[in-house]
Amino acid sequence: MSDRKIxxxxxxxxxxxxxxxxxxxxxxxxxxLPNVEVIDDYKYVCSKPGQQIVxxxxxxxxxxxxxxxxxxxxxxxxxxxxxxxxxxxxxxLLEIANIREHDSWIHSDDPAAATEKAIDLIRMAVAxxxxxxxxxxxxxxxxxxxxxxxxxxxxxxxxxxxxNAGFKVYMVEKEPSIGGKMARxxxxxxxxxxxxxxxxxxxxxxxxxxxxELLTFAEVDEVDGYVGNFKVKIRQHPRYVDVAKCTSCGxxxxxxxxxxxxxxxxxxxxxxxxxxxFAQAVPSAYLLDMENCLGVDxxxxxxxxxxxxxxxxNYDDHEKIIEIEVGTIIVATGFDLFDATKxxxxxxxxxxxxxxxxxVERMLSSAGPTQGHMVxxxxxxxxxxxxxxxxxxxxxxxxxxxxxRVCCMTxxxxxxxxxxxxxxxxxxxxIDLRTFGKGYEEFYESTAAAGVTFIRGRVGExxxxxxxxxxxxxxxxxxxxxxxxxxxxxxxxxxTGVVAPESAKQIAHILNLSVSADGFLxxxxxxxxxxxxxxxxxxxxxxxxxxxxxxxxxxxAKAAAAGAMALMxxxxxxVEPYYSIVDEDKCAGCQVCxxxxxxxxxxxxxxxxxxxxxxxCKGCGTCTSTCASGAISSQHYTDxxxxxMITEYLTPREES
Length: 656
Hints:
Blueprint: E1 6-11, H1 23-30, E2 36-42, H2 48-61, E3 65-70, H3 73-86, E4 94-98, H4 100-104, H5 111-129, E5 139-141, E6 145-149, H6 153-164, E7 168-173, E8 187-188, E9 193-194, H7 195-208, E10 212-216, E11 218-226, E12 229-236, H8 251-255, E13 259-261, E14 270-272, E15 274-275, E16 287-288, H9 303-307, E17 320-326, E18 328-331, E19 336-337, E20 354-356, H10 357-364, E21 385-392, H11 406-422, E22 425-430, H12 440-449, E23 453-456, E24 459-464, E25 471-477, E26 482-489, E27 491-496, E28 498-499, H13 502-511, E29 538-540, H14 550-570, E30 572-574, E31 580-582, H15 592-596, E32 602-604, E33 610-612, H16 622-626, E34 632-634, H17 639-650
Parallel strand pairs: 1-2, 1-3, 3-4, 6-7, 6-18, 7-10, 18-29, 20-27, 21-22, 21-27, 22-23
Antiparallel strand pairs: 5-30, 8-9, 11-12, 12-17, 13-14, 15-16, 19-28, 24-25, 25-26, 31-34, 32-33
């Protein structure tokens, strides 16, 4: 629009921008541009006085376009949109020129170049602002129900918050019982509270809550729809035991002749083919492991069914597909421990007396396979000397570069419990100790004072004496600058880091979520939107988003629940109008756009032409660039707007 009146507002951002960029020189250059009616600057344009300056100029000069030269639009674009709404100007007639992250911060050593770049960035923003069109935000209704994927402590916390607020919750857990990894842990650091004492009452609440529908031994198979209106297909595997009829008496298990390594006990003990995962399991019902069952008729076996007075066992049970509709989704898929066999120098999987921290947790548990006694797996004797090896699978260029955060404190906790209980020699080899939480440093200091020996250095090798089954640990004491060798070690514990589970990768594919380089689900913004995903209405919580301890996991789960409540509480929301639009006169119905759309936002309508769902489309432009007939265009990011920015940049300034 050649007659458009544009206001340009330059933010100093304290000294973040003004300390590098020559604001006056920028103003002088921008004032010469066509359509620039007003140019002003302020120390903090995002502040209330700064916003008032923008409002006054819009009203007094009757502006119909605004350019704010400041920080990233991810920070304050919503702020300035609201400013424009309040004075009656369409909020999409706004353009942000990022002269902080894209300029002053990265060119702080060259103010002259930073100033020139700021001028260019604002010139390009003005060129686009001339072509911006007013847009309307589509309104979408939201169903007041939530799907929670994963039922560890994160999923449980989010589910109870939502259910107690009156929202319907569908909880899907791939394991036969809820509880996740926390149900397998013995104590929590730094207070040494009983993990089960904290968790199991909340598990019981889940099982009894009228607003929670629990779907265990199930996985999300397919998700269609958009924020507020997700259609979900859930695949529930057969348990072969009716949960409603089962009384958890255990008679069936007592007659089962099959022994199978118990997953819940980290393969350190055995369970029957018909079993309950652990005593406090929810739902409190047995299930039949058909892969290891001897047979489903009286000729081959059938003993469990004969013994069941409640008639709960059904050999003909089958897989079920359950379809639900929800308004929001929370992903809390948890974590897995790093597979230590990928570090063969430590002998895990080769030497029986090399174990990981998950296996030690089950040994320490009074309800575990050894009833709380620490033993050597080779002979079940009590160890006299133990060594912990930190950062196995973490902070390692060959495996995972990230810190898993919880391994240091888990090792310190276990070492303290073992030292207090047995009084034996316990050594911890570490690179750096990460005691990051409330009371964690004090717990570490008291553990060292209790006699646990901390050695700063990485372990290079672990060897086994095949006669005695004892181990030799070779490493380096980096504080002394000398190699160190510990002989006659009875038990080596590998502090295995955490990794994203395969289920997280699967759900990321189903929900079209972004995944970070380390395999965990990627949040929309690490500081401002730490539990939001890039897909509206879908949130992430707990270890699904990255390594964290229990307090941080619960806090993030509550944040995700609050985000879901905020959406569902409105009943309706406005969707940003960045979606693509189709010109049916040009559309050939070739469906190429459908095949390339990463958000499944395009389908053929009843007339055989492509049609875009505004609530699903994210305006990425993939369809626009692919359409051979030029039938699709992207709102707010048109070819003309982008071309105008490029042309403005390439035009020598004296000609502009």
